[in-house]
Records
---
Amino acid sequence: MVGGCVGVGETRGQASDDVIFCWLGERRQAVATSKDTLKERLARFRQIKISVIGRKSGRKISIPVWFVLEGEKLHLLPVQGSDSQWYKNLLKNRSIGIDPRGVEAEFRAVPVTDAKAVKAVVEKFREKYGAGDVKKYYSKFDVAVLVRLK
């Protein structure tokens, strides 16, 4: 099928909330129903899975990350800053998949390199996850990533 949406079902063989499957070209995409929007899912979890396209392999690469949701903005902070592989991949291909446990949506990521803007994101992470854990797991604070959900 090319284009369009059908039926309610399950994702990845696991029972989940209502999901509608849509096709974008030849690609099947699970989309949250109005009962369970992406933002509602993001508000429930502390960790999500992101997917980026490998800059050398061209393959989809998925990893778990922490995030901060602020209105229509999703802030991401690479653990190793600009040395993080997923961040380097984003610089080549800005497409990013956001998957809060079972429903993935594609967006365009915006790298953030302005020192003041990055510092503001780091502070948001410290508020959400605690300064001790951010210090424990994050080693470089030179970049962040912004994903606009609308």
Note: Residues 1-21 have pLDDT under 50 and may be disordered.
---
Amino acid sequence: MTASIPRLEAGDVVDLILSDHRLFEDLLRELRNEQNDRDALRGRIAELLVAHGEAEESKVYNQLERKDAIDEEDVEHGVKEHDEGYETLLPLLEATELYDEDFSEKLHEFSETLLHHLDEEERDILNPAREEVTAQERARLGASWAAERNRMLDEGCGSVEQVRALVGEAQSSAQSSAQSSAQSSTQPTAE
């Protein structure tokens, strides 16, 4: 059986998030190896992705925006990339054959999406947080993020049903945004 995801203690939010990023990279490497238990590994990466991303969105991103470390566009982009991660994770979770070329292609797409996000988040969100937010505030954010992440892991997250729901929410949100944009562009302007 594959080991469970470690529960993180309080600490600097940047360091804690980076620790999870390295764990993502390790899990992806293990998942690529056809001699490993891919079913267990895809379950672990799904749990970690949901707990990590949802905790960032609820406990970190908006706080960093309030501290002027990042702006609204950075928050929206981070959330969009989380949604893209869920969208590319879902086919991995739905796959019934885990050792064929189709699964490898789905894994490649998920890996590319996730690694792209990790890189951008480290450069565009975590670096500014390190520079613009005090160590005390980063520790407070770290405790809050770790507690939410651990709570979600302890309660069980990352099931195919939960990931489907997250993908559905993202698609509904995107449709609502597109409709709002279309309506505002057709509204006459006051002269």
Note: Residues 13-172 form one domain.
---
Amino acid sequence: MIKIPVLSRSEWRATKAAIAGVLCAAAFALCAPARAEPIRGAGSTFAAPIINQWSRDYEAARTDGGDFTSPDWRVDYEPVGSLAGVMRLAQPETDFAATDAPLPPAEIERRGWTQFPIVMGGIVVVANIEGIGAGQLRLSGPVLADIYLGKVKNWSDPAIKALNPEVELPDAPIEVLHRQDGSGSTLSFTTFLSASSAEWKEKHGADTLIEWPLGRGEKGTGGLAAFVAATANSIAYLEYGQVVRAGLPFASLQNAAGAFIRPEPAAFQAGLGALEWDAARGFHAEQGAGDASQAWPMAVVTYAIVPRDRGQGRINRVLDLFSLAFSQGADEASALGYIPVSPELVGRMETYWAASLGRKAAPGLSN
């Protein structure tokens, strides 16, 4: 016979208290609200300055002038480069990626993602040559490609002198610099080189990450900006706003019409003016004819990519961030050297959000 132990009254009271404690703890775990988390994004270093500004604006709007804040009112954005940002979407905690290299519509659909433009601007060439100021040096696409191919090695090369008859060029080797990480800026730059040089196109092509034939690399826009600033007689490619803020000397570039253009927002806008935005293609823009005579040849569009499987609450917070950016952050974008998204395009994106991301409410901050 199995003898069943009999608990004393004091033991029974202790057991009941322990059971009650376990049940209360379990109920609390089930009923407690989820831990507050920030919006998490990663990607473009090109757009990092304006995304960081919009992130501060978002938190300020959520606090509404008060002292209280919450982690889920913040944005944690990591400028790891366009390619790495898209790769981060494989991590379920990442809410959005920012990329200067838009994904093809078929890939966006296959992965169950949504893509839309958030800001525009330009990639410029920096030449750190003593005594030569911003815009004074002129370069063409073919000569620039030959510099990065290693065929033009010295600043006094006849090919550069022919474009700059009135500029005193040093007899010094060209220090070639480039991005080391996967970057939309690299895609824009190598697309320009490929359009300018059949040899470059055949040997290296255009991509976010390539095997460079020569030169030294650095990670991120900020890292490359510091590198070129510290390296005499160097050449590199960078985001326009960062170049202006750092006081780096940029070159004028010859565009497809044969005109030498100084980089500035009006020239970027001329290069972007004929883009045809198609929501059905994830706003993957096709370049039209444009105002070629005034267009800067390396205009850039940064896109946000949002997975559709993150849950409606998380998706809405990302859309809140960009709704606020579009409605109140255009002047800030312009001040940093970017081209803001037009109100007409914003309206089309809001319709797209409703159809593809379940955004039913009017633009504003979600609860």
Note: The first strand starts at residue 39 and ends at 43.
